Peptidoglycan/xylan/chitin deacetylase (PgdA/CDA1 family)
Amino acid sequence: MPLVLPPNKKLAVSISSDFDAHSVWMGTFGSTSPTYLSRGEFGAEVGVPRLLETFRHYGIKTTWCIPTHTLQTFPGQCEAVLSDGHEIAAHGVYHETITKLEPEEERRLMELQIKQHEKFIGKRPRGYRSPAWDFSDTTLDLLEEFEFTWDSSLMGRDFEAYRPRPVIHQSREDGNTFGEPSTILEIPVSWYLDDFPALENLPRSVGMASTDDVLKRWTDLFNFAYTRVPNGVFSLALHPQTIGRGHHLLMLEQFLDHVAGHSGVWFAPITEIAACWQD
């Protein structure tokens, strides 16, 4: 079932910001090097104001996926996100690697991030994005138990919202078996629509791709979604410490000019998009 978008809208566009700051280097990459932490600091001190200014210029409301480590380390920037009318979703505690956690620890961290969201933001998060976009065998169950509305971590579709099904039995010889669709609505992501792996200089690989190449990829994918996926959702994931670099921000603004030039495009936070789903 496709989304039922507002009148005269043909494609929902989610621009989301994963505001990881220090946590991605400490959690996913396991580094406390001052050099790596300074890249996270750039994201907070330089990238966030630049990105918020860009969103104000285009009149776009977005979703920010923020680890609670960032909420505590850079509270002023998080308050600025809220003051501009953007949504804040859950994104782990310290950008932990979900697949390396024991079930009890994953549950503890899920409970902790909800508690910290309530403390710093004043309410529970409606949505969740896994750090590094990965799930354990129990993540989906936890999201259902703690009554999240949506997730945006999986890749079972490209431009369509869907209800993910857990793989309840795996067999290399007999095939895999799916369980029932989840109560969680998935707003899918894609590594092709993420600035971080393509544009960053990462410890495990060197990205730093040409902005012309990345812009062409994003534009091609948007054009496909716009022309071929009615009532679909196009989800672009940004990181302030990446997209906030001057040449990257210019590329983003060229892309937004292209998208905004199409009629029937609906820029919206993920929770508003998820509310358009009808079973």
